[in-house]
Write a structure and sequence with these properties.
Blueprint: H1 2-29, H2 32-39, E1 41-46, E2 55-56, E3 62-63, H3 65-77, E4 80-85, H4 91-96, E5 102-103, H5 111-114, E6 118-119, E7 124-126, E8 128-133, E9 152-156, H6 160-168, E10 173-177, H7 180-188, E11 194-198, H8 199-210, E12 214-217, E13 224-226, E14 229-230, H9 235-250, H10 253-262
Parallel strand pairs: 1-4, 1-5, 9-10, 9-11
Antiparallel strand pairs: 2-3, 6-14, 7-13, 8-11, 8-12
Domain Solute-binding protein family 3/N-terminal: 41-265
Organism: Maridesulfovibrio hydrothermalis AM13 = DSM 14728
Keywords: Signal
């Protein structure tokens, strides 16, 4: 009797293991990796204009820190890098409808977005800062001082900058823009009190155009990891991306791109 029970138990374990293994194989076959390799192209969704992550140079080429990383990813996969430029608020829908394979658009990992898509490990961590019109220098010492109906705050539509304003500065008036540059110019021209946006963009804009017209609250007041996004249910693609990021951060490639785009502004003269 014990032998029969043991054999039945063993049969159950083997059947379960076979079923689980078959399920894993089936899941692997459905991975986006296979369609990318079959097509010979990596379709990367981006929204050009986010300095210094993705921009358009004077020759119409998409360049920037994240574009260099995405090109390196395509090279590692042995496929062609295909940038797909679109508005930021349309990028997740494009991913979900298979118009792109991956989001490479400086996207912040949020719980709301994570309910819709999966993220690879963070590529870089940034946070929200504020560019403020110089006329308010005696009144504004912290981003919290902007939380008043007398101030108009601007940011880019559909971004975590916009979310931060609505969450942390609910009393202020808010106006959104299609591009971060248009939002910053609104403050520069005195039509808005301040812009809330990611540290890299604000730092670059301040250095290039803000002297004498703006002041910079440069200490980030949010924690925002930026990461690549893919469709849910694809552990093989996530595994590949995470291993790729680990490799590039330890073989010098990541540091090379970081130094090129964050520690130098030589690239600015080549941008549209």
């Amino acid at each position: 009797m014990k032998r029969i029970c043991l054999m039945l138990a063993l049969s159950f374990v083997l059947c379960f293991a076979f079923s689980a293994n078959a399920s894993d194989i089936d899941l692997a076959k459905k991975s986006t990796i296979n369609s990318i390799l079959k097509r010979g192209e990596l379709r990367c969704g981006l929204d050009s204009g986010y300095m210094p992550f993705e921009m358009t140079d004077k020759n119409g080429k998409f360049v920037g820190f994240e574009m260099d990383m995405a090109r390196e990813l395509a090279k590692a996969m042995g496929v062609k890098f295909v940038p797909v430029n679109m508005s930021f608020d349309g990028i997740i829908p494009a991913l979900l409808t298979d118009k792109i394979d991956i989001i490479t658009a400086g996207m912040t990992v949020t719980q709301e977005r994570n309910l819709k898509i999966n993220f690879a490990d963070p590529m870089i961590v940034v946070g929200q800062t504020a560019l403020v019109n110089k006329k308010l220098k005696d009144k504004i010492k912290s981003y919290k001082d902007l939380n008043s109906p007398e101030y108009t705050i601007v940011s880019k539509l559909g971004t975590t900058g916009e979310q931060a304003v609505k969450r942390l500065l609910p009393k202020a008036q808010y106006k959104s823009f299609e591009t971060e540059t248009d939002a910053a110019l609104e403050v520069l021209n005195g039509k808005a009190s301040a812009m809330v946006y990611d540290l890299p963009f604000c730092a670059i804009f301040m250095a290039e155009q803000g002297k004498g017209k703006l002041f910079f609250l440069d200490k980030p007041f949010t924690y925002e990891p930026l990461a690549w996004g893919i469709r849910k249910g694809d552990p093989d693609f996530i595994n590949f991306l995470n291993n790729f990021l680990t490799q590039t951060k330890n073989d010098g490639r990541y540091q090379k791109f970081y130094k090129k785009w964050f520690e130098s502004t030589n690239w600015r003269s080549k941008i549209q």
